[in-house]
C-alpha cells in the first residue's frame, strides 16, 4: 500500500504541533529526537513543494508573456 502524500498545509500543521510540544516541554528525550527528525523531513517536503510551485507559476507567467 502506497503512503498518502502529505499536503503542504498538513505538513505545516504537524510542524506547528510538534513545535508547541517542544516549547511546552511535553516531550521526553527519546521523543524529542524522533520529533526533531520528523520536523526536518516535513521542512524538506515543504521546501520541495514551494520550489515546485514557484517553477510552475514562473512557467505560466512566461507562457502568458509570449
Structure report:
There is one protein chain. The protein is mainly alpha-helical. It has helices at about 10-25, 30-65. Helix 1 runs antiparallel to helix 2. The mean pLDDT is about 90.
As residue ranges, the low-confidence spans are none
Please tell me the overall pLDDT. Answer: 92
Oligomer description: single chain
Label the structural class: mainly alpha
Biggest sheet record:
none
**Whole-number count of domains:** 1
Tell me the β content.
under 5%
Topology as a string of helices (H) and strands (E): HH
Radius of gyration from CA coordinates: 17 Å
Inertia-based shape: rod-shaped
Q: In DSSP terms, counting alpha (H) and pi (I) runs of 4 or more, how many helices? A: 2
- Kindly state the number of beta strands: 0
Terminal CA distance reads 44 Å
Helix fraction? over 70%
What features would you highlight for this structure?
mainly alpha, 79% helix, 66 residues
Summarize this structure briefly.
With 66 residues, this protein is an all-alpha fold. It has helices at residues 8-23, 29-64. Helix 1 (8-23) runs antiparallel to helix 2 (29-64).
